[in-house]
Structure formats: structure tokens, C-alpha cells
Amino acid sequence: MRRYTVGMGERDVLMRLAAGETCSGALLARELGVSRAAVWKQIQALRADGVPIEAHAGSGYRLAHPLKLLDLAALRGALTPTLASRWPHIEVHWQLDSTSSELQRREPELPSGSVILAERQTAGRGRRGRKWLAPPAMGLTFSLLWRFEKGFAALAGLSLVVGIALAETLRAMGAHAVALKWPNDVQHDGRKLAGILVELGGDFLGPCFAVIGMGLNVWLPQEVRIQAGQAVADMVEACDGTVPDRNRLAGALLVALAEALELFAREGFAPFQARYVELDVLAGRELTVHKDSESFRALACGVDSRGALRVRRGMDALVLDSAEVSVRP
Which of 44, 104, 210, 235 matches a 20 to 30 Å C-alpha distance to 87? Predict the structure, then answer.
């Protein structure tokens, strides 16, 4: 099943509260055509997912901050006719198991430049099988399908190119301190702001395709930060308290991603190497590198023309195509 209707009651409640106004349970029940008990159940479900809905005695419910749900027309409106042709297929869902899983299921029937966004994911995932946590309508979780004529080997550095497009766009929108942690994390103040997951399919020698999943924290309540179990940041703090318009943000990201992916398909990672230097949070820092069953200390020395991480281990210069790295305190 491609479209999920579970939770649509919660979506209706969230839409009504999105403006930040206080609404009584009786008013919500009357407008939505359900019982007050049903409204209360939907409010509790949203709270359990991390949406901060306040209850005020005698007046009703309200969101701690107003928000806007994703809107397909607004997303399309952010694209020029030329860029719209780069993204011929865009879908916005209330709930999916995973936007990347949905694209993979439907890959044979979808064109290159297909985008699927979801307000809520029940099985969103990050790198190495980690779960991606995002309260409904408070982040950006989306995946895109891009086809390449070349094979897997030519796609080295793809996750870094996506990271560059994200980071440069976020900086342009006010998050001036955003940086990149090799290989696929976007950070603010040393904490994770966004993650990227690239999964390849097709012929190893080409043609092939990439399903590129992205999760961006737009507004994370404290309870969700604790649940994440790692140091995380959101766009609100990165933009000095301003809540970004998620439709405008998603549109700007699609513009930057189209340009970056087209250049990468033609010329690989090399044209992006200098741009990565400006965003590299690891360069010159001491790291702990976890690779296969080994862990060792090393000094980060930037990335090469393929996007591999260059490190120095004692007197030895090493190049890492994949590894887990952490900055030593």
C-alpha cells in the first residue's frame, strides 16, 4: 500500500492548531465531526510523537509554536519552469513507513527526479540502520530518486555533494554556522542538524540509480532531543530563534540539489572539493576512527578528489572511503 491513512485524524487536529491559536476540545470536535474523546485521543497521539501541544484550562489546546504543513503547490511554486522539469514527480504524504523505502518499492515506475516527502515516518532510518526521529510536521524528511548513466564506482563522494548542497542552502537561509562532518552529517555547533543516507541500485557498471534520503531537524522539542540519545540541533536555534518556513526551505533545497546532482553526474566530486573545504568541521582535528573491527587515533587532513577522507596516523597517510569517525575531546 503506497498511501497511508492511519493518523489522518491527528493530521486534521494539527492542521487546525497550526496557526498557533488556542482551540477548545469542543470546537475541534465540532469542526472535525468527531467526539471530544476522539479529539483527546488524537492530541495524546501527537504528544506521544513529540508534538508540544499545550493544554490551557478553560480555553483549550495550542501549539507551543505555530507551524505550516507541507504543501505541494507551495513547493512547486518555489521552482522555476526549468528547475520544475528536473523534478517531474513530487509527492507529499502525511505518513509513510520511510520515504526511501517508498521510492525503492516504486523505483521501476518513477522517473529520475522523483521526490517523496512525508510529515511523519514510522520507520525512518539513518546510516548503519539507526532510527531517524522526527516529530510530525516539525522537520523535513524526504527522499529523491536520481538516475545515472555511469556505474557505482563513479558515484564516490555523492553523499558529500548532497551535504554541500544542504549546508550551503541552510547557510543562505540564516544558519550561518552550519558545517559538514564526513561522511554524511550536517552539524550546527558540533551537534547533528541533518543526516543523509544514500542507497544505490541498478547495474554495478551502469546505468544505476541512487535513492537519497535526508532528514533535517527544523524544530525539536526538548523531549525529542533526550529521546534521540545523541547531541542534536535544529534550525530554530541555528537561525537564532526564527522558525523557518518549511515549504520555502524544501523548495530551496530542491533548487540546490538539482544543480549539484547535474554537475556531479557530469564531472564527479572534483568540482566540489574546494567547496567542501569551506564546510569541513573535521580538518585539522584529532579523531578516533572506527573501521571494521579496528579503532585508532588519527589527524583529519580533508578529503581527496573522490570525497574520501584523508587522515594521518602517526607517520602514515591513509585514505578512508568508509568509516565511523568521532572528534576527540
Answer: 235
**Region 161-189 average pLDDT:** 95
- Among residues 106, 127, 275, 310, the one annotated as catalytic is 127
Right CATH for 286-327 from 2.30.30, 1.10.10, 2.40.300, 3.30.1340: 2.30.30
As a CATH number, domain 8-63 is 1.10.10.10
In the block, which residue shows the cell 533526550? 226
3 is a catalytic site residue: no
Per-residue pLDDT reduced to its tens digit, 29-74: 888 888 888 888 888 888 888 888 888 888 889 888 778 899 999 9
The vertex-287 CA angle with 278 and 181, nearest 5°, equals 35
Q: Is the pLDDT of residue 1 over 60?
A: no
Is residue 127 annotated as a catalytic residue, yes or no?
yes
Q: Which CATH architecture is the domain 72-277 placed in?
A: 2-Layer Sandwich (3.30)
| Threshold 0.90, pTM exceeds | no
> Does residue 328 carry a catalytic annotation?
yes
Alpha-carbon gap, residue 1 to 20, rounded angstroms = 33
Q: Which one of the listed residues 62, 192, 225, 246 is annotated catalytic? A: 192
List the beta bridge partners of residue 211. Answer: 145, 199
